[in-house]
Write a structure and sequence with these properties.
The protein has 15 helices and 19 strands. The chain has 495 residues and is an alpha/beta fold. Helix 10 packs antiparallel against helix 12, helix 10 (399-409) packs across helix 14 and helix 12 (429-442) packs across helix 13 (449-456).
């Protein structure tokens, strides 16, 4: 399980800083009054590092460009270049902003607009330092004309021109990429690194940027620019995962959060990577879906279902969280006539998000597969059979507590079976039962319940404990399981 190096107190502090407006410059909200297919769509930046996710063509770069237009240093053509033949639909585009700029107004938000009228952009931008990192940043040096001079035999570099990239840059880059970068050097011009070279630690081997990996040089340059940015700057990044392996993506986003805390910088990035979302709170994630935007801890793969990019299941199920997803999948796996290839189940990181995505899915004329939504027993959302929104059993209990208590109610009967499911010896059943009762009584946070049981039983992985409890519950309560899956079976028959 992923554990972020960013403390929860830091996340809460940053959310609080935004809520109280404790910034000198900050983009608080963008309303796309009319841009492409967006009409009256509002995106709030409730956290200083914001991820914009969505399918190809969903509008991620549109949101990034709209944010950039609030500031004078960004030319509109950087994101919204216009072709006279194909881009006639730009006429009438309009964006509204809510911003903080204490140099202009000390104690309130500022409202600004940008619109495309009479074949040109008309806007009232504010001043702010803006750094933009496009997807071309990972193009190899050998494919970029500005680097070709470094490959010529006649080109010479003096020792004075070659300098270390610096301890600060090398430390941040090493943390992201996962190896020692203390011997990386660069040909510098003022604060810019023009060309890079490296020496492997422990080996007498030197190599230039022509032989770097795709993300290696781009990360160094990005960090060099970011560390030299003034405080209160805006950073816009296209596809933050570009050129990085999954763990490096995680570390990059953690670095951006740390940077936001340290320098009060605001970051907005687009991504197709679920890994990029893991360090962020739900408030920091927005999914753009062509004509609307939804805030919340969304699953990248769940968005594929919204655009029909699934392996043609007969039903799609949206759940509140990972445990509910496992619960539904366990029932499907053990039901006759149904298997997981026929049902795609997605966790959405919140009951409100699950309901919104489900409703949007079924309202979308392009959706060829129907969806259902299962909310937890303690959810404040309203269940509706007509809208295919169903409440899991539990009567205001979180599902983890409901399953655990249901198993404990019959523990004397099932303790041997549970011991085997937990990969323990049958003879330890009584001891295991006692541990389960103790942990249940002592645990306040239901999200930690199965992890703590696994820890007490000798560090059994949480997922094994969870699956063991679900297995025993299904054996003991088949009628309730049938009631849960019945709507799925019915909708598959109709599809």
């Amino acid at each position: 399980m992923y554990r972020s190096e960013i403390r929860e107190s830091t996340i809460n502090q940053l959310k609080d800083r935004v809520a109280k407006g404790n910034y000198r410059k900050y983009l608080r909200e963008v309303m796309l009054k009319k841009v492409r297919r967006f009409e009256d769509v509002v995106i709030r930046f409730d956290f200083p590092v914001t991820a914009i996710i969505g399918p190809n063509g969903g509008g991620k770069s549109t949101v990034l460009g709209a944010a950039a237009l609030a500031y004078r240093s960004v030319k509109p053509r950087r994101f919204f270049a216009k072709n006279q033949v194909f881009d006639t639909s730009m006429q009438g585009w309009r964006i509204r902003y809510s911003l903080i700029d204490r140099d202009v107004r000390k104690d309130d938000f500022i409202q600004r607009t940008a619109s495309f009228r009479e074949s040109r952009w008309k806007r009232s931008p504010l001043d702010r330092d803006v750094a933009i990192f496009g997807i071309s940043r990972t193009v190899p040096a050998s494919e970029q004309t500005q680097f070709l001079k470094f490959a010529r035999s006649t080109y010479s570099i003096t020792e004075q021109e070659v300098q270390s990239i610096g301890e600060e840059i090398s430390e941040h880059a090493a943390r992201i990429l996962g190896w020692d970068m203390s011997r990386y050097k660069g040909v510098r011009h003022e604060s810019q690194i023009l060309f890079l070279g490296a020496e492997r630690v422990g080996e007498d081997i030197q190599y230039s940027e022509f032989h770097f990996g795709a993300g290696e040089a781009s990360i160094i340059r990005m960090i060099a620019i970011l560390e030299n940015l003034p405080e209160q700057s805006l950073v816009l990044i296209e596809e933050v995962e570009n050129g990085l392996h999954p763990m490096a993506v995680l570390k990059m986003v953690e670095y951006l959060v740390e940077l936001a805390e340290r320098k009060r910088i605001q970051v907005i990035f687009t991504t197709h990577s679920s890994d990029a979302l893991l360090p962020l709170p739900p408030e920091a994630i927005w999914a753009v879906l062509g004509d609307r935007a939804i805030q919340g801890d969304l699953d990248i793969y769940a968005l594929r279902a919204l655009r029909g990019y699934t392996d043609k299941p007969k039903a799609i199920v949206y759940t509140e969280d990972a445990f509910a997803k496992s619960w539904i999948e366990s029932i499907v796996r053990r039901s006759e006539g149904v298997d997981l290839e026929m049902v795609a189940v997605y966790e959405m990181g919140g009951d409100g998000t699950a309901v919104k995505i489900h409703i949007y899915h079924n309202e979308d004329p392009a959706s060829s597969v129907p969806s259902l939504c299962y909310i937890d027993g303690d959810s404040q959302q309203e269940a509706s059979a007509e809208r295919l929104i169903f409440r899991l059993p539990g009567e205001e209990l979180p599902p983890e507590i409901y399953i655990c208590d249901a198993v404990i109610d019959s523990l004397n009967e099932v303790k041997g079976k549970l011991a085997i499911a937990l990969h323990q010896r049958f003879e330890k059943a009584d001891e295991i039962a006692e541990i389960i009762r103790d942990v249940r009584q002592d645990t306040r946070d239901h999200h930690l319940l199965f992890a703590k049981i696994g820890e007490r039983l000798g560090f059994i992985p949480e997922d094994i404990v969870r699956e063991a409890f679900l297995f025993v519950w299904l054996e003991q309560y088949p009628q309730i399981a049938n009631e849960i899956i019945e709507p799925i079976i019915n909708i598959m028959k109709d599809n």
